[in-house]
């Protein structure tokens, strides 16, 4: 089948000094909450991380978490119970288990979102991975998610799509997937004036999923840069030491 390669997008978190745009992440969270969370969990991400990561206050995170119900227990009587979520809880699954998730979605369980932005991306065979050492390309995941969400189209002439699946030439595993086109224009209301289009929603939710999978990206880039600066200075010092130790005596 003709698999389409995701187009590379401009992301604020790309490059040596990449950083997350908190406004974009907040919009992405809104798209996730209002649309994707009906099917996709994010079980490795705790609500409390929204405070530092997306720039919300303690009270805002508490209020946000309280919209969710989570399973807890067993209590004193050995019974499980549900309660309102608190900031230390994680984004729960909308389904009680994988079987129920698959049954509600034509046999394909919606994958958990915690690491999805790192689980998909550009497949890099030899020799590209050699270049990755010098110029790593980390943004293949969000490129892919953006391409998938904006890539639904009518199947070409002669292509049969299995019942309950939807043609999308960007989907890596087949030419159609069990997820119907989840986004349409004006579906989610933005209060910061960003365009309410499928393209913008896809961009924002992809950035948000990158943050979910790689919340320490900015710190890591900063540390990496400082390490390079240190190594450069250290190389200079070693060179000077070498010159002085092996200096000719006569
Ligand atoms: C799969 C994103 C909303 C049901 C996926 C995948 C991604 C994704 C990245 C993985 C594709 C792959 O395996 O390569 C999103 C986003 C959403 C969203 C960003 C919100 C904007 C929904 C909704 C539903 C849903 C609302 C249910 C009504 C599924 C299912 C699969 C899937 C069943 C598995 C498809 C298959 O393997 O055939 N989604 N999704 N998704 N999603 Fe969604």
Question: How much is the radius of gyration in Å?
Answer: 23 Å
Helix content: 40-55%
What's the number of helices? Answer: 9
Strand content: 5-15%
Unreliable stretches (pLDDT < 50, length at least 5) are: none
Counted beta strands: 6
Chain-wise SSE layout:
Blueprint: H1 22-34, E1 42-46, H2 49-54, H3 58-65, E2 69-72, E3 81-84, E4 90-91, H4 98-103, H5 116-119, H6 128-134, H7 140-150, E5 166-167, E6 176-177, H8 198-213, H9 217-245
Bound molecules: protoporphyrin IX containing FE.
Task: Characterise this structure.
The chain is mostly helical and 250 residues long. The chain contains nine helices and six strands. Strands 1-4 form a two-stranded antiparallel sheet. The protein is globular and about 85 Å long. The mean pLDDT is 92. Protoporphyrin IX containing FE binds next to helix 7.
Task: Kindly list the characteristics that best describe this protein.
single chain, 250 residues, mainly alpha, two-stranded antiparallel ribbon, binds protoporphyrin IX containing FE
Q: What is shown here, in short?
A:
The protein has 250 residues and is mostly helical. 40% of the residues lie in helices and 8% in strands. Bound molecules: protoporphyrin IX containing FE.
